[in-house]
Amino acid sequence: MTENKENKILLMKSPYIIQEVLSFIDEKQKLKMIIYNKQLQKRIRVDIENYKKIAGKYLILEKIGKGREYKLITNNLIFEGEFKNGKRNGRGKEYYSNGELKFEGEYIDGKRWNGKGYNNGKIEFELKEGNGYIKIYNDYYDKLKFEGEFLNGEINGKGKEYHSNKEIKFEGEYKNGKRDGKGKEYDFHGELKFIGEYIYGKRWNGKGFNKDKNEFELKDGNGHIKEYNDYYGILEFEGEYLSGERNGIGKEYYYNGVIKFEGNYKYGKRYGKGKQYDYNGKLIFEGEYLNEEENGKGKEYYSNGELKFEGEYLYGKRNGKGKEYFDGELNFEGEYFDGERNGKGKEYFDNELYFEGEYLNGKRWSGKGYNNGNIDYEIKDGKGKIKEYYDDGTTKFEGEYFDGERNGKGKEYYSDGNLEFEGEYLNGERNGEGKEYYNNGEIKFEGVYKNGKRKIDFWKKNIGKDLFHSPFYT
Question: pTM for the whole thing?
Fold first, then answer.
């Protein structure tokens, strides 16, 4: 075995060597390399999926028991230290988004236990055996967000939350990190919003206010409530409350007072039948919801009120059987998966069958194209020769099809039937040699295209030399 082969095998087997190689690459580029590579994630012990879903961050373990956490989008370092069973455990440091030290000390089972908290380089609080009085600052505004009592590694006891303008947002009692006990809520301008009792973070008994006016009352977590925007005092929601959450019939509103949604809620989220409207009050969806997302049967509408789609949904996307409409006419009927046409389907044009077959990821994959009731072309496994038409039946495009898109040679036509373009395509766009024509047949452009744009070689045109990487695009 040669030395090169031995090195390659060693690189594949050792997560530490791979990590060492990646250490020379900035975190943003590193994330691009590993985010879709599950195998590489395992080799360098990167846990992306779990952190992406739960907290918008990802973790890179550099050595056994040690690692670094980064924000998923901004890629800035937020923690470095020791881990156990996926949680912070042992010595570690937290950082603000600007890179300054936020907390340094010891963690137990993911909780701060012993150490000091900082803001602008100044010690703000100290914890001992999970107890103390802490202060939490907003990462972006550098303003106090919370201050209060800390017990057993969590917020427990009395505390205060603040708006970004330093006005009190909430003052009261906490238990295990949540509002629990007596408390008061205030809006952005310091006016009383709610006073009463909380249980496990939920309003339970008390009165709600807006501009000093008593708006609703809760008893044992039940009642008919109204929720207002903290800053503008505009009504955002009104409806039934059960067990401290939105449960039953309710309405959401836009800032202009127009209804945004009306329907049923369960466990604080849209659940069951409901209707959604745009900012101008036009109905854009009606159907079934589950956990805030469209699930079950539903209908979508254009802004003019015409039906756009009717069919089945799953997790907020079209899934199952459905129909699409355009200008009041059926445009497509068939199967969907993950929001796109997938499976069997039929396309219609001017109430006549236009294409029938199978779709894959929204693309025509296998089937037959029709014109005036006659079979016009056929594609199989995403390839073949196709034709596309204008509204009046005049040919719009004819050419080669591959991977469900225009790929290869083809021709485009003006609506009056005159040739507009002939040449090569790649991934649905003009790419390669081609010619454009004016409607009178005169040549408009002849040359090379890339990604749908004309490629003009400035040096060849003006100096007579073809230099590498010299094209300009129009």
Answer: 0.73
Q: Which residue has the higher pLDDT, 382 or 392?
A: 382
Collapsing DSSP to helix, strand or coil, 280 comes out as coil
Strand partners, 403: none
User: Half-sphere exposure (CA, 13 Å, Cβ side) for 256?
Assistant: 7
- Is 58:51 a contact under the CB 8 Å cutoff? yes
CB atoms within 10 A of CB 213: 7
Side-chain-side CA neighbours of 466 within 13 Å: the count stands at: 2
Each residue of 429-447: pLDDT tens digit?
Answer: 999 999 999 999 999 999 9
**What is the SS3 assignment for 5?**
helix
SS3 470: coil
Dihedral over Cα of 441, 444, 449, 453: its sign? negative
The 3-state DSSP class for residue 34 equals helix
- In the chain, the percentage of residues whose pLDDT exceeds 70 is 84
**pLDDT score at 72:** 74
The two three-digit tokens of residue 111, written as one number: 């909780």
Complete DSSP assignment for 55-120? TSEEEEEEETTEEEEEETTT--EEEEEEEETTEEEEEEEEE-TTS-EEEEEEEETTEEEEEEEEET
Quote the tokens at residue 398: 């004819």
Per the document, the length of the chain is 474
Residue 46 is predicted with a pLDDT of: 61
C-alpha torsion sign, points 457, 458, 462, 463: negative
315 conformational bin, left if phi > 0, alpha if psi -120 to 50, beta if neither: left
**Strands, E assignment, 278-426:** 283-290, 293-301, 307-314, 317-326, 329-337, 340-349, 352-360, 363-371, 374-380, 383-389, 395-402, 405-413, 419-426
Q: Are 278 and 302 in contact (CB under 8 A)?
A: no
10: phi then psi, degrees, rounded to nearest 5 = -60, -40
36 pLDDT more than 70: no
If one counts every other C-beta atom within 10 angstroms of the C-beta of residue 318, the result is 23
Q: At 51, which helix (H) or strand (E)?
A: helix 49-54
Q: What pLDDT sits at residue 30?
A: 57
CB atoms within 10 A of CB 421: 19
- Rounded average pLDDT over 362-389: 90
- d(C-alpha 358, C-alpha 346), whole Å: 8
pLDDT tens digits, one per residue of 179-212: 999 999 999 999 999 999 999 999 999 999 998 8
Cα 43 to Cα 359: distance, rounded to the nearest angstrom: 36
**82 Cβ contact partners less than 8 Å away, ≥ 6 residues apart:** 65, 66, 88, 89, 90, 91, 92, 107
Residue 362 has φ and ψ, to the nearest 5°, of 85, -5
